[in-house]
């Protein structure tokens, strides 16, 4: 599959791949961004631009899809082959209701179906995928649905005509872990109801481990390994797969061993080198790898386990140990492990932040408010890392932005290095701002593309009136500290990879020698192989410099890897707080239990045999008024309370908001911790 370019070499996006998906089977296709996962599946749907040059053939039910015209393809597309796109908001038409769009999919392929019957079927489909109150929701527009509900609606549309193949293109990438678990359950249900085969495209190896029958690994436009989930995860024979698996944080083993970063980046598909495309990043490459590109072949006893590697036989027979291909780096000695009894470097007490809601254009009136942060308290001690976790909209980012404002909060107190931010003047605020810095989520958007990276890193020093010579020396020191060549200071941001840009963001955050570094989802925008290097770097910097970190994330495996303490947030409040090992190993609050059980594990056997606590529905709006426990509407523990025998316990949940109270070494905001029998593994 080749895409011609103007005044540039053509991009060979997909190169000589062959695979089959059997009826009722789920094939997981994984790989880094740009590996060709999505574009190969768009070719199956006939959704590539006319300029694309496609060689080979695609057969569905014995028929060549490439030989069909658009009119013939339209009869198959949406009926026999359906797709669930990554971003449902851009895939759904904003000016039509959800019901109209599902009905359209039905009416296009069944001319004998009446509009009334299609409308009834739309409601049935929304009910199947778990949309609450489908009779009302069927008349809603896409913007009135949450992200998880929009993705459910996309799945409803995909299964409307009982397809034989469903292509799910990164269906859970933009979703919280609890919603991701719900969507995967819906996808499995759709597979069961329709009997369809599923092609699941994802970069999340945990998602593949728990659901895929077979796994295909792509790199630089080519399949480099394929086999059953157990074969690929437990006995990989391609070094890229070995490195990919060792770079993924595992919530069960995180913090007990270092992650393995895959240094470098994939080659340009417009200028591929001779030989194996992974050769530059492969630590066990031999001369043959640099001359001849390996074919996808079986190298062991299993005929269906294929890999494209000249060293695969050495790996299979034990001559080349997988652990030796990408050995785990040794951690640096921790300079300051963080005394849990030390005076906090950062203290937040009863912090609140709300945003008014207005209605009307000319005559605006206040109609309510969003309680983004509602009484949050925590402490961060020197040399320790506090993680703030929870679903999108729970108040994590608003909390850290309040810290960085360095002004009197709406309510509550913020103390940085013993100084109350409410007492600061313009004169005293600037030196304190050097004590707390931030690293943003998106490394590309966080730096000015018009400035060389040396000036980007030096910006905080310029604000602090540091002289030019001292700034230049500090920039060179920082680049070396984050693993980049100081000679790169004159380059521009677009000349760096995503992982390198995030290292530049970290260098800028460290420029003023802060006591506290705030990290807002610092690795969520990075491929898993690059993510490992950034996580290792942050651990090394914390251990080497004695930094205190406030780490905001929704990936619990990453949190377990780097954090000492954790605070779990729900609708603006902390519902559980304590040492990371205690909270993750023995969660007390039902919400924490649901988060833990929804976090995917890159281990097929462990993932398929887990006890799960699934939540119903999505996060309520923080603009709502809550009586009693705000988690009650989704709480699996509350749902187990009998309305008759447990009437008093239910009334407590309905009328009294729980406060954080000690339970052994953990604080939890739940009335019924002692009777919580929900099982999590």
What does this structure look like?
With 681 residues, this protein is an alpha/beta fold. Among the domains are: 235-330, no CATH class; 590-675, no CATH class. The protein is 34% helix and 18% strand. The strands form 5 sheets. An 8-stranded mixed β-sheet has the order 6-7-8-3-9-10-12-11, with helices on both faces. An 8-stranded mixed β-sheet has the order 18-19-20-15-21-22-24-23, with helices on both faces. The longest helix is centred in the first third of the chain and has 18 residues, at 177-194. The two termini are 43 Å apart.
> For the largest beta sheet, what order do the strands appear in spatially?
6-7-8-3-9-10-12-11
Principal-axis shape: globular
Per DSSP, the total helix count is: 26
Give the overall pLDDT as a whole number: 91
Oligomer: single chain
Low-confidence stretches: none
Counted beta strands: 24
Q: Largest sheet, described in full?
A: 8 strands, mixed
Helix content: 25-40%
Q: How much of the sequence is in beta strands?
A: 15-25%
C-alpha Rg, in Å?
A: 27 Å
Structural class given helices, strands, pairing? alpha/beta
| Termini separation | 43 Å
């Amino acid at each position: 599959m080749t895409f011609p370019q103007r005044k540039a070499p053509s991009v060979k996006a997909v190169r000589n791949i062959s695979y089959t998906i059997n009826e009722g089977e789920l094939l997981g296709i994984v790989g880094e961004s740009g590996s060709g996962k999505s574009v190969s599946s768009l070719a199956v749907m006939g959704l590539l631009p006319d300029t694309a040059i496609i060689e080979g053939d695609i057969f569905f039910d014995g028929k060549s899809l490439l030989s069909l015209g658009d009119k013939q393809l339209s009869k198959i597309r949406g009926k026999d082959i359906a797709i669930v796109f990554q971003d449902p908001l851009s895939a759904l038409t904003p000016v039509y209701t959800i019901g109209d769009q599902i009905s359209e999919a039905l009416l296009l392929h069944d001319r004998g179906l009446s509009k009334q019957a299609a409308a009834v079927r739309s409601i049935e489909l929304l009910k199947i995928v778990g949309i609450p109150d489908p009779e009302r929701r069927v008349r809603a527009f896409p913007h009135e649905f949450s992200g998880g509900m929009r993705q459910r609606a996309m799945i409803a549309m995909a299964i409307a005509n009982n397809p034989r193949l469903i292509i799910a293109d990164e269906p859970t990438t933009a979703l919280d872990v609890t919603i991701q678990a719900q969507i995967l359950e819906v996808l499995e249900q759709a597979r069961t109801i329709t009997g369809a085969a599923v092609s699941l495209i994802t970069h999340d190896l945990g998602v593949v481990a728990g659901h895929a029958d077979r796994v295909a690994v792509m790199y630089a436009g080519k399949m480099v390994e394929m086999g059953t989930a157990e074969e690929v995860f437990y006995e990989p024979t391609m070094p890229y797969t070995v490195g990919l698996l060792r770079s993924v944080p595992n919530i069960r083993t995180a913090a007990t061993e270092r992650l393995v970063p895959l240094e470098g980046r994939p080659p340009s598909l417009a200028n591929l080198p001779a030989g194996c495309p992974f050769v530059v990043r492969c630590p066990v490459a031999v001369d043959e790898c640099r001359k001849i590109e390996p074919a996808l072949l079986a190298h062991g006893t299993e005929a269906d386990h294929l890999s494209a590697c000249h060293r695969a036989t050495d790996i299979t027979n034990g001559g080349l140990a997988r652990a030796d291909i990408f050995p785990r780096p040794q951690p640096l000695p921790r300079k300051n492990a963080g005394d849990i009894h030390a005076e906090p470097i950062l203290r937040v007490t009863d912090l609140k932040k709300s945003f008014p809601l207005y209605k009307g254009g000319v005559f605006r009136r206040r109609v309510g408010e969003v309680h983004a942060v509602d009484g949050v308290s925590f402490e961060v001690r020197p040399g320790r890392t506090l993680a703030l976790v929870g679903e999108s909209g729970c108040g994590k980012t608003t909390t850290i932005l309040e810290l960085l404002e360095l002004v009197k909060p709406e309510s509550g107190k913020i103390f940085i290095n013993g100084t109350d931010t409410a007492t600061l003047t313009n004169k005293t605020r600037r030196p304190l701002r050097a004590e707390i810095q931030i690293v943003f989520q998106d490394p590309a958007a966080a730096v000015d593309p018009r400035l060389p990276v040396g000036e980007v890193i030096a910006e905080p020093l310029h604000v602090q009136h540091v002289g030019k010579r001292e700034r230049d020396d500090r920039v060179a020191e920082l680049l070396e500290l984050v693993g980049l060549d100081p000679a790169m200071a004159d380059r521009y941001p677009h000349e760096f990879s995503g992982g390198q840009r995030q290292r530049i963001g970290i260098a800028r955050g460290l420029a003023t020698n802060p006591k506290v570094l705030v990290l807002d989802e610092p690795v969520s925008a990075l491929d898993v192989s690059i993510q490992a290097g950034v996580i290792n770097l942050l651990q090394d910097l914390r251990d080497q410099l004695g930094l205190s970190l406030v780490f905001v994330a929704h990936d619990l495996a990453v949190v377990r890897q780097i954090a000492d303490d954790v605070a779990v947030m729900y609708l603006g409040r902390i519902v559980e707080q304590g040492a990371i090992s205690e909270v993750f190993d023995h969660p007390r609050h039902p919400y924490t239990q649901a988060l833990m059980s929804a976090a995917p594990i890159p281990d097929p056997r462990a993932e398929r045999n887990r006890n799960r606590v699934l939540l119903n529905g999505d996060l309520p709006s923080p603009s709502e008024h809550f009586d009693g426990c705000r988690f009650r509407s989704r709480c699996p523990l509350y749902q187990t309370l009998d309305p008759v025998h447990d009437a008093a316990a239910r009334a407590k949940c309905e009328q009294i908001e729980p406060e954080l109270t000690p339970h052994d070494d953990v604080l939890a905001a739940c009335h019924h911790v002692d009777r919580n029998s929900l099982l999590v593994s």
